[in-house]
Amino acid sequence: MTITTFLQHLAPLRLLTRGAGVVAQSRIPVIAQPLIRRFIRQHGIDLSEAVRCHPSDYESFNDFFTRGLLPSARPIADTEWVSPADGVISQRGEIAAGQLIQAKQQAYSINGLLGDTALAHYLEGGCFTTVYLSPRDYHRVHMPCAGRLLGMRYIPGTLFSVRPAIVNAMDGLLARNERLVCWFHHPQCGIFAMVLVGAAIVGSIHTVWHGAVNATNRRTIHEWRYAEQNHAVRFAKGEEMGHFQLGSTVIVLLPQTAVKWHPEWRVESAVKQGQAMIANPPPLPYTRQSLLELQQAYSTPTRP
Asked: Is 86 a catalytic residue?
């Protein structure tokens, strides 16, 4: 264990996160404006891409941090699957023997990540990619493809930092941290999942259909289902689906289809939201488990 990871275990991360959240939500100008302006200078933020292009346009640090961008700032590639966020590609690969790769020579359980045996079984043999959002990145998360929302699961956990150095040094961190699992139906490829991983100083995770998912500081797994056809929540490729307050990680998990990564989608490469992720393949039918069977497993909606 390195000194950095040792300190992660010692630090009161949840208390620090709550304290940072209070400061970040402050609308008092003498608190918010110095934070915003210092952050812009420190990280070289280009506000010319934003809908509101001056620091004084933002009432709080959170308001600034979750800023929206001009539509022209993130063109959507003409491929079936695109990047869900700005960031760096931490990993990409196959889902094999119930495992995903977190770092070199280090794997973790897909079932542990998702908290769902049926969904983990369905995605076996598919592929995944992990995008790390640093504090300087644009922090809204968008749909990598068209999809209909089927369900959402909040899983409480630790709040270790997800900086690459920490992730590389700590076994199974992405399946240990607080996270939000969302699963969708793609019209050709079947069911896919997006996992938004919380971290130290991340105030909360929001979705556009629910708002702040852990606003009440839940300590147990909580699930919502949206599979009813008459209450369908549908998204277009590139449409916003949620955001982080401060940096974190998004994991996209695809079912077993004919996947060919786009040539620019390489580990450790910086990417922008909307950038091509997968070259357009003809999707192959998923034969290990019928799509209908899995959809029926989630057909009964639950209430918060």
From this structure: yes
